[in-house]
Amino acid sequence: DSGVTQTPKHLITATGQRVTLRCSPRSGDLSVYWYQQSLDQGLQFLIQYYNGEERAKGNILERFSAQQFPDLHSELNLSSLELGDSALYFCASSVNPPGAGDTQYFGPGTRLTVL
Amino acid sequence: AQSVTQPDIHITVSEGASLELRCNYSYGATPYLFWYVQSPGQGLQLLLKYFSGDTLVQGIKGFEAEFKRSQSSFNLRKPSVHWSDAAEYFCASKIIFGSGTRLSIRP
Questions:
Q1: Alpha-carbon distance A70 to nearest alpha carbon in chain B (angstroms)
Q2: Could B43 and A33 be called an inter-chain contact, meaning their C-beta atoms sit closer than 8 Å?
Q3: Taking all residues of chain B, what is their mean pLDDT, rounded to a whole number?
Q4: What is the DSSP string of B17-71?
Q5: Dihedral sign from CA coordinates of B34, A38, A114, A78
Q6: Which position among A3, A76, B46, B78 has the lowest Cβ density within 10 Å, counted as fewest Cβ atoms?
Q7: With an 8 Å Cβ cutoff, is A105 touching chain B?
Q8: Cβ contact B42–A42 (<8 Å)
């Protein structure tokens, strides 16, 4: 158990819908990362927050957004869902700000299925 | 651009045999390299990491990896694999992940 929690574990929805994935980092970790893992794209970095502020952005679609709240939990919002958005979404957390050599601890993931 | 390459998509080894999974990185400065393992339907578990210092790093579950700057490599090794090692292995440099190597174990 990494100490990172993600809810829900599974999510099934329809195209065009909007969903919210939630992540609680390890106690004491200030950085939260979001990743998408799909069969054709592998593990892709989406976005990173540090202490409530967006610090790095990867291959995140405009239909996707995220935020980190004052209690440091984070939410990833996916809207206008398409079949291709079906994937495993991972959250990871770490102690240090971006740029530092830091270890990320991964949550168990949320499996999103878009029908 | 920074990249991490895992040339082997799938490797099968016999139980008790030695293992080496390859990883090459492309990065100018200190690469901060990691190996993770992922069992089916599970999250990623950190096996080991290299930031600086001794180029041979020891990890959990009997794994080790050697950083070779001249070859831009960070290969993962284990002297004797167990059936429970069957999983997907990912090499990463910070937020850049390789495509993974699936390890199967032959009884």
A1: 24
A2: no
A3: 93
A4: S-EEE--EEE-SS---EEEEEE-TT--EEEEEEE-SS-SEEE-GGG-EEEEEGGG
A5: positive
A6: A3
A7: yes
A8: no
Confidence check: pLDDT of A98 > 80: no
- B2 contact residues in A (CB cutoff 8 A): none
Contact with chain A for residue B58, Cβ under 8 A: no
Q: What is the mean pLDDT of residues B16-36?
A: 90
The pLDDT score that the predictor gives to residue B1 is: 75
Task: Give the pLDDT of residue B27.
Answer: 73
Q: Which of A89, A107, A23 is nearest to B46 (CA)?
A: A107
Q: Give the C-alpha separation, B50 to B31, whole Å.
A: 8
Q: Give the pLDDT of residue B107.
A: 87
Nearest-CB residue to A45 (from B51, B52, B95): B95
- What is the DSSP-derived secondary structure letter of residue B75? E
pLDDT in tens, A4-31: 999 999 999 999 999 999 999 999 999 9
User: Are B44 and A106 a contacting pair at CB < 8 A?
Assistant: yes
Which helix H or strand E contains B94, and what residues bound it? none
The three-state secondary structure class of A1 is coil
